[in-house]
Amino acid sequence: MDHDLTDVSVDRLHELYREHRYTVTEVVQWHLDRIARYNGVYRAVQTVTAKAALTEAGREDVEAKQAGFRPGPLWGVPIVIKANTSIAGLTTTAGWIGYMLPGHELVAPRDAPIVAKLRKAGAILVGVTNMPDFAASDTTRSTAFGRTGNAYDVRFSPGGSSGGTVTAVTSNLAVLGNGTDTGNSIRMPVATSNLVGIFPTRGLVSIAGIAPLDWQLDNTGPIARTVADAAVALTVLAGEDPLDPATIGSQSKAQPGPYTQYLKPGALKGKRFAVPAFILDGETPVFQGVCPNATPEQFAKARKNAFTPLKPETRAAFLKAVDELRAAGATVLIDSQILPDSFAITASHICTLPYLREGTDKFLADFGPAQYHSAAEYEHAVGKRLPSVIIGGEKSGLFESTNVQQATLETDPHAGENFFNPRDKVFALYEAELDRLHLDGFVYPAIQMPPVDETMPQDGRVSEGPHSDTNWVNMLGVPAISFPAGFYEDGLPFGIEISTRKWHDGDLIGWAYDYEQHTHHRRPPVLVDRGLLPTAAKPLEP
Questions:
Q1: Alpha carbon distance 59, 69 (integer Å)
Q2: Are 175 and 130 in contact (CB under 8 A)?
Q3: 238 in helix, strand or coil?
């Protein structure tokens, strides 16, 4: 089983089922056994749903014996779900201990739409993955479950905020998982862990039922070991949802599924990509932006805090990947005038901070527990406010403004100057550059540095990273895909990212697949079952 199931793909797993090599129960139990063996060290899975998983596996085994049985696209596939995604009857911790207070737990009344879609496709949930509180970190350390380690070396960070899912999937604790991404939180962690992650065009996949960090930037998508598996999962996840207005009308705008139809060798031949200069220069747009009422000094401080230089070893790894793209038939342009630093400066004016509370209130209204369906009701029930990171308040954003007033986006008279106008301006710059250079997309490092060692200080303190320069993708809602592009000399993974025009998610999948087939960079980690924590806590029980 270890030989057959380690790094098994969805297609191969279905072949094993058709050949009657294994039952679904046996496959699920194999993954649960791995969680039991390794989770105490890597701490990727916060809640293990063993009983429910085995019950569902048994049901599917019976189902498979019925006449005319036709399996769904993810039938019998063990998956994990990130802890900010609602699962009926389980506590949606979002990594925060405050949603776990006895008597005040945020128990989901029903599945988030994407969880319902995964179940309908036949996937089997084996666990809920750890994440930093509210997804507000580039590493994975939570008040709910502690620290998740990198599968390739437990001392190092798997990135964040989807670090629990990436460690679970790359470690073969599950075949697939979902991540969420507000500034880089799918794409950066998969780059630390030799995986594929898709940030869909915003509106292709519903984010309803996912506890928000910033609902104007949030997104969700698949995390997988291969591009093909990510394509299968995206096909399942995509679709319009009345609970998420951004998805309405997406079916007529998006490249049609199934996304496996874009898995074609030679997809890179003749394609033109360019490297954004601001990423090579480390000029990250300010996360969540700087509002118009900020002083020039506050803007300068926020820009300085956002600066994230590209490490020399990461630049070298990226240039090797560029050579591989060119060897596969693509043209890659590198020039200091291609999306220069001014692009990042302009993007820093897209301010979402006044609308944080609205997003949290909307989530709690539909997916909160009986005790509270808004931030105000949480405070009344618990006696404490929700943290400002999800409802606004003092010290909001990187410039720590004390006077960002919360408003409703749809009725705020300042929404244009805060958000819509600068976003439209930056989107026009993005599209104009694609047009000017006749580009298919942009390519760049998915991460600005190697995974960092969390057992010792980095630059004088325990790291809050690793970091990337990719939050502008969230600001624009354009699609991007991150995928393996080799290893550093110390054996830790490196990944690259490609973005393109809205609704061209299928094209991205084709390009990543072609690169994957040319390079075959995926290599599973060698795990240890004893590590830094001799008395690691057991996972939660549902």
A1: 13
A2: no
A3: strand
Residue 320 designated active-site: no
Q: Which tokens belong to 189?
A: 């962690």
Cα 499 from Cα 9, distance rounded (Å): 25
Give the Cα separation of 44 and 265 in Å (integer).
Answer: 34
d(CA 64, CA 84): 32
- Give the model's pLDDT for residue 536: 47
Query: Do the Cβ atoms of 114 and 104 come closer than 8 Å?
Result: no
State phi, psi for 81 to the nearest 5 degrees: -125, 140
| pLDDT per residue as tens digits for the range 358-404 | 999 999 999 999 999 999 999 999 999 999 999 998 666 655 665 78
> How far is it, in rounded angstroms, from Cα 391 to Cα 382?
16
Which of the following is catalytic: 161, 193, 401, 482?
Answer: 161
Catalytic hit among 82, 117, 271, 502: 82
How do strand 146-147 and strand 272-275 relate by DSSP bridges?
A: unpaired
Distance between CA atoms of 194 and 191, rounded to whole angstroms?
A: 6
Integer Cα distance of 95 and 92 in angstroms: 8
pTM of the model: 0.96
Active site residue 161: yes
Give CA–CA dist 431/478, Å, rounded.
10
Per-residue DSSP letter, 355: G
280 phi/psi in degrees, rounded to 5 = -65, -30
Please calculate the CA angle 408-414-418 and round it to the nearest 5 degrees. Answer: 95
Closest CA to 139 of 124, 131, 321: 131
pLDDT of residue 460: 73
Distances from the Cα of 533 to the Cαs of 36, 131, 154, in angstroms?
15, 18, 10
Q: What is the pLDDT of residues 292-321, one digit of tens each?
A: 989 999 899 999 999 999 999 999 999 999
Q: Residues in the chain, how many?
A: 542
CA nearest 173: which of 261, 69, 291, 42?
Answer: 42
Q: Find how far residue 426's CA is from the centre of its chain.
A: 23
Structure tokens given for 440 = 């298919």
User: By C-alpha distance, which of 297, 418, 400 is closest to 354?
Assistant: 418
Q: Is 206 a catalytic residue?
A: no
**Ranges of the chain with pLDDT below 50:** 534-537
Say whether 502 sits in a helix, a strand or coil.
coil
**Closest CA relative to residue 403, chosen from 389, 415, 393:** 393
Domains of the chain, earliest start first: 1-519 (3.90.1300.10)
- 113-120 and 227-237 are packed helices; what angle lies between their axes, rounded to 10 degrees? 110
pLDDT at residue 535, rounded to an integer? 44
Catalytic residue among 86, 185, 206, 401: 185
By C-alpha distance, which of 126, 183, 137, 144 is closest to 163? Answer: 137
Q: Are strands 124-129 and 78-82 parallel, antiparallel or unpaired?
A: parallel
